[in-house]
Amino acid sequence: MTSDSSHPAAGMVLGALPAERLATVAVCERDEVVAVVVQNDSVRYVVLVEWREKEWVVPSLINGTGRPATGPPRPATTQDPVTLPELTFTQSGWPAPDGDRPEFAWCAVTGGVARDAREVVLTSEVDEVCTAVRSDGFVLGVVKARWHIRPEVAVRTSAGHLVVDGRPS
Left if phi > 0, otherwise alpha if psi is -120 to 50, otherwise beta: which for 42? Predict the structure, then answer.
């Protein structure tokens, strides 16, 4: 994950959104997909841009989610039950050749995690990825998963503990 908005997909996403003082917050590239997070004080867009037929393709429908004006302070440890519910999941996939929903799709996981979190591990039955946590607690990761199935989320703490779905393992 980077805060670098120079990736062509980031520019395409910014061009597809209404100009309301939006800024690129994070970009995460995996194989043939780039997750771009764009936000301002009131709205956040998480957009999955896929490499299709030798070009980056921005989805035709992009939805943003509201952001609270002030949120709760980041909990100190991943033992706090509010740690993982702050994460959001955005999934995108191309229809199957018969026009039906895809079997697999890319899933972006975004949000804030506890201050002691250092890494987030996203696991599905077909993919696994580890992503670092920014110093402000923001995390962005992309994993391939079955359509409409959320990946398992585990948080590795600075002490090396692994917390899965809010429970130490």
Answer: alpha
